[in-house]
From TrEMBL:
<dbReference type="InterPro" id="IPR050763">
    <property type="entry name" value="ABC_transporter_ATP-binding"/>
</dbReference>
<protein>
    <submittedName>
        <fullName>ABC transporter ATP-binding protein</fullName>
    </submittedName>
</protein>
<keyword id="KW-0813">Transport</keyword>
<dbReference type="GO" id="GO:0016887">
    <property type="term" value="F:ATP hydrolysis activity"/>
</dbReference>
<dbReference type="InterPro" id="IPR003439">
    <property type="entry name" value="ABC_transporter-like_ATP-bd"/>
</dbReference>
<dbReference type="InterPro" id="IPR027417">
    <property type="entry name" value="P-loop_NTPase"/>
</dbReference>
<dbReference type="GO" id="GO:0005886">
    <property type="term" value="C:plasma membrane"/>
</dbReference>
<keyword id="KW-0472">Membrane</keyword>
<dbReference type="Pfam" id="PF00005">
    <property type="entry name" value="ABC_tran"/>
</dbReference>
<dbReference type="GO" id="GO:0046677">
    <property type="term" value="P:response to antibiotic"/>
</dbReference>
<keyword id="KW-1003">Cell membrane</keyword>
<feature type="domain" description="ABC transporter">
    <location>
        <begin position="6"/>
        <end position="231"/>
    </location>
</feature>
<dbReference type="GO" id="GO:0005524">
    <property type="term" value="F:ATP binding"/>
</dbReference>
<keyword id="KW-0067">ATP-binding</keyword>
<keyword id="KW-1278">Translocase</keyword>
<dbReference type="InterPro" id="IPR003593">
    <property type="entry name" value="AAA+_ATPase"/>
</dbReference>
<keyword id="KW-0046">Antibiotic resistance</keyword>
Length: 304
């Protein structure tokens, strides 16, 4: 395998007769962010567990920082930062005690006081973990994942429960990590988060990869789903390949599967009608549009 931060090839994860991850392959290059997207039950968490060395794959191969996550687990763990959705933190300890404890495990930690201030934990540092709100617990979990100066960070729903300010602070920290060469594999249900942070996206559906690419590649492949044309009023554009509606006099909204041929046909209709077009605007599909189109028929699945 190459020197990528994470390389997964044909990994399978089974729970009894149920296949949660079905021959999935993906790569996280060094210093990049890969967002793993999919509904609950799509197999994301099971795949992360394989990469983190918390369970073996039933088939396939996984290398993390060039090592086997199971066989080389003790060697690998000091180089990783892992932010879990829940668990793994002492509920009776205070936020400050917990972060300083985890910092003590590292040979060259980040300054925990800096992380406490950056993530807005100062006013909660004497509060026991079990009394923190969900968003406050997420902030602390993120600080724990980062305090050891990891080469690779696994972030499972990193901003779940956070307010807007904390979300943007978290995004900034992740961008700073990648600027320093840290690799990031994250899962999120927030499509704007994935579109902002991710260099690469893998969308999973029912345990398999449904699509992969950069956010720009995925949205470009999805095409344009709305065209606005300004021309003289009272026209009735029509075609078997698109639908048109005059929303206000002279303002036409054209919808349908607007590939290059359909777009050309729509504009040609106005030219043939002798109508002078004074403005054209298009709406390209977002990552959320792509995600919903690929996963709309798979609301249920294995809860892993």
């Amino acid at each position: 395998m190459s020197d990528d931060a994470v390389q997964v090839r044909d990994v399978v994860v089974r729970y009894g007769a149920t296949t949660a991850v079905d021959e999935v392959s993906l790569t996280v290059p060094r210093g990049r962010v890969l967002a793993l997207l999919g509904h609950n039950g799509a197999g994301k968490t099971s795949l992360l567990q394989v990469c983190e060395g918390f369970r073996p794959a039933d088939a396939g191969e996984c290398r993390v920082l060039g090592l086997d996550p199971i066989e080389d687990h003790d060697e690998l763990m000091p180089r990783l930062g892992i932010m879990l959705q829940s668990g793994g933190i002492y509920p009776w300890a205070t936020a400050g005690e917990i972060l300083r404890l985890f910092a003590s495990f590292s040979a060259n930690p980040l300054d925990p006081e800096m992380l406490i201030d950056r993530l807005g934990l100062r006013k909660f540092e004497r509060t026991r973990f079990r009394r923190l709100s969900g968003g406050e617990q997420q902030r602390l979990s993120l600080a724990i994942a980062l305090v050891g100066r990891p080469e690779l960070v696994f972030l499972d729903e990193p901003t779940a429960g956070m307010d807007t300010e904390a979300r943007h602070t978290t995004w900034q920290l992740i961008e700073e990590l990648t600027d320093d060469g840290v690799s990031v594999l994250l899962t999120t249900h927030l499509l704007d988060e994935a579109e902002k942070l991710a260099d690469d996206v893998v969308i999973m559906r029912a345990g398999r990869v449904a699509a992969t690419g950069t956010p720009a590649e995925l949205t470009a492949a999805a095409g344009i789903d709305l065209l606005e044309v300004r021309a003289e009023a009272g026209l009735q554009p029509r075609s078997a390949h698109f639908s048109a509606e005059e929303k206000t006099p002279g303002e036409y909204v054209i919808t349908g599967r607007l590939d290059a041929a359909a777009l050309a046909e729509a504009l040609a209709w106005f030219a043939t009608a002798g109508a002078q077009v004074t403005a054209v605007n298009s709406r390209r599909r977002t990552l959320e549009d792509v995600y919903l189109a690929l996963t709309a028929d798979n609301k249920a699945g294995v809860s892993r």
